[in-house]
């Protein structure tokens, strides 16, 4: 009986890691689609979002069943509660990837297509890194790795500020750039929010390992 429970607990964690991998893949492709103005790749990201939503629903159902039938305590309960929270963060990150992908086609339909600032590309790269790091910290249950996201989150905020200033300059230079610049401002915002989701995941890892709540981006 105990062995069956342990296998179920491990299966839920494995399912969460697989969901995280899907979200990572979606974010990578969304950022790549923006870099290349690749609408086919963007459409793939949008079409795949449903699978991420289904993964979250399945994980949540499995966790609720385990809590109801096994009545876990201590660290096992923390793992299961954190798993529900992390699946929600990943589902939102998947939505953000879809949002970036949608902006690719909208930018291409704008009156003029402006060059994407390098700072925005760096923002996308760092958001991907943070998501990957947060998932690594979960797999390894590494508190030090989880805490490292606090500094990266500050870098994200600084990059977003730079992107906002640069895109506002573009609009001031040529009002026809308003639409495409606005879409790119939205991209910068959702990438910053993706970084916040990664930081939240890291906080849950710390909670599992230490049983204490620690805020990394106050």
Please tell me about this protein's structure.
There is one protein chain. The chain is mainly α and 218 residues long. It is 87% helix and 0% strand. The longest helix has 36 residues.
Give the overall shape, derived from the CA principal axes: elongated
One letter per element, helices H and strands E, the order comes to HHHHHHH
**Low-confidence spans: pLDDT under 50, at least 5 residues?**
none
Please tally the helical runs, counting DSSP H or I stretches of 4 or more residues.
Answer: 7
- Secondary structure: number of strands: 0
| Largest sheet composition | none
Helix content: over 70%
Into which percentage range does the β-strand content fall?
under 5%
Q: Give the overall pLDDT as a whole number.
A: 95
- Radius of gyration equals 19 Å
Gap between N and C termini: 43 Å
Structural class: mainly alpha
List the helices and strands and how they pair.
Blueprint lengths: L1 H35 L2 H32 L3 H36 L8 H23 L2 H5 L1 H25 L4 H33 L8
Helix pairs in contact: 1-2, 1-3, 1-4, 2-3, 3-7, 4-6, 4-7, 6-7
Short description:
By secondary structure, the chain is mostly helical. The chain has helices at residues 2-36, 39-70, 74-109, 118-140, 143-147, 149-173, 178-210.
Characteristic terms for this protein:
mainly alpha; 7 helices; 218 residues; single chain
């Amino acid at each position: 009986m105990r062995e069956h429970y342990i296998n179920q607990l491990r299966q839920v964690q494995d399912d969460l890691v697989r969901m995280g991998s899907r979200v990572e893949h979606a974010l990578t492709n969304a950022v790549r689609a923006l870099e290349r103005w690749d609408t086919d790749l963007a459409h793939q990201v949008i079409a795949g979002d449903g699978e991420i939503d289904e993964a979250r629903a399945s994980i949540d159902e499995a966790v609720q069943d385990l809590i109801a039938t096994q009545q876990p305590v201590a660290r096992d309960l923390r793992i299961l509660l954190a798993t529900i929270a992390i699946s929600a963060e990943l589902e939102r990150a998947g939505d953000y990837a879809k949002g970036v992908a949608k902006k690719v086609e909208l930018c291409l339909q704008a009156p003029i297509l402006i060059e994407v600032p390098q700072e925005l590309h760096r923002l996308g790269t760092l958001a991907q890194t943070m998501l990957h790091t947060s998932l690594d910290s979960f797999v390894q249950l590494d508190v030090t790795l989880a805490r490292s996201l606090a500094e990266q989150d500050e870098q994200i905020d600084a990059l977003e500020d730079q992107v906002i200033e640069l895109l506002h300059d573009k609009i001031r230079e040529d009002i026809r750039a308003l639409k495409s610049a606005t879409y790119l401002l939205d991209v910068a915002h959702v990438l910053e929010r993706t970084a916040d989701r990664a930081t939240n995941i890291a906080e849950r890892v710390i909670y599992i390992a230490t049983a204490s709540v620690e805020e990394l981006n106050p």
